[in-house]
Amino acid sequence: MDRVISLLAALVGLIALGGAILVHTNGDTQRSQMAAEIAQLKLSVGLITQQQQRPAPGAQPATSPASAAEAVAPAAEPSSSAAVIEPAPSSEVPIVTVASSGEPASELQPPPSLAASSSQEAIPAVTTDMTALLARIAQLEKTTQDQASQLEEARSKLSELPSGEAAAQVAAASPSSSAMPAALAADGPTTDCIPLGTRFMGTTGDKFPICKTKLVVKVAAVTDGLATITGPGDVAAGAFGALDKGCSVMVFSADTSGYAEMRVTCP
Fold it and tell me: Are 60 and 115 in contact (CB under 8 A)?
C-alpha cells in the first residue's frame, strides 16, 4: 500500500509539473502576442498624430480681403472690361459685376477658409479613432496584468499543496477494487473472447464468451430488426436484454442478412 501511495504521489507531482509548464508556456505566448499588438496600436496612434500635425494639402495661408480681391479681380482695361457697381438696398452689400468685351472671365478660386473648414470637420473623426485605440491599449494591458497575477496565484497554490494530500485525493478519485463489475471472474477466459463494452457481429448459432467472466452470448436467431439470444430472449434493435450478474446485452442492429450487432456491458 505504501508503494502505491508513493507511486501516486510521484504521478501527481509529474502532472502538477506538466500543468505548471503548460500554464507558463501559454502565459508567455499570450503576453508576447499582446505586446506585439500593443506596439502596433501605439505605432498607429503615432502615425495618426503625425497626420494631424501636418497642414492640410489644400490649405493656404490666410490673406486679407483686400489682397484676395486684388488676386481675383483682373486688371481693369479700358478696351476689354469695366467694373460696374450696382446700387443695392441699405441692408445688403453692393453687388459688383464685371462686364467683359469678348474675353472669358478668369475662374474664381475658392477662398482658403473653405479648405480649412473641411480639414476641421475631419478632426473629430480622427479624435474618435485615437480614443478607441487608446481604450484598446488600456484593455490589453489590463488583461496582461490579470493573466500574470492568475499565473502567480496558480504557482503559489501548486507549491503549497502537500504531496501526501495530493496522493490521497488521487487515491480517492481512482476506482477501487469494490467498484469493479461483479461479473468478473479470476478464471474467466482471456483469449478467443469478446471484451466487455466491445461491439461484435453475430449470426444464428454463434456463441461468444465474454472475457474475464462466465458469460456466454448465444445467438439463436436473427430477423429483420430482432435478435433472439438464449436467456434474454427476443431483443429488438436499440433495446437491451438482461444477462446474469446484472450485465446486459444491447442489440444495435439486426437485418435480413442474418447478422446482428451487439455489445455486452456490466455495471
Answer: yes
Cell 506585439, residue located: 36
Report whether 163 contacts 9 (CB < 8 A).
Answer: yes
pLDDT (0 to 100) of residue 109: 52
Residue numbers of the domain that contains 213:
199-265
For residues 128 and 258, membership in a common domain is answered with no
Backbone angles phi, psi at 83, to 5 degrees: -95, 130
- pLDDT score for 199: 93
Residues of the chain with pLDDT under 50: 62, 64-108, 170, 175-178
Q: If we measure between CA atoms, which residue out of 194, 160, 164 comes closest to residue 266?
A: 194
Q: Do 155 and 229 belong together in one domain?
A: no
Please state, rounded to an integer, the average pLDDT across all residues of the chain. Answer: 74
Residues 29 and 127 in one domain: yes
Alpha carbons within 13 A on the beta-carbon side of 117: 5
- Of 7, 6, 5, 17, the C-alpha closest to 158 is 17
Is residue 186 one of the residues assigned to a domain?
Answer: no
The structure's pTM equals 0.35
Contacts of 203 (CB under 8 A, 6+ apart): 219, 222, 258, 259, 260
- 42: which DSSP letter? H
The Cα–Cα gap between 196 and 180 comes to 12
How far CA 173 is from CA of 17, 55, 155, 267, in Å, comes to 20, 72, 23, 18
Same domain, 203 and 162: no
Q: What is the pLDDT of residue 233?
A: 93
Q: Are 130 and 210 members of one domain? A: no
Question: Tens of pLDDT along 39-62?
Answer: 888 888 888 877 777 665 555 554
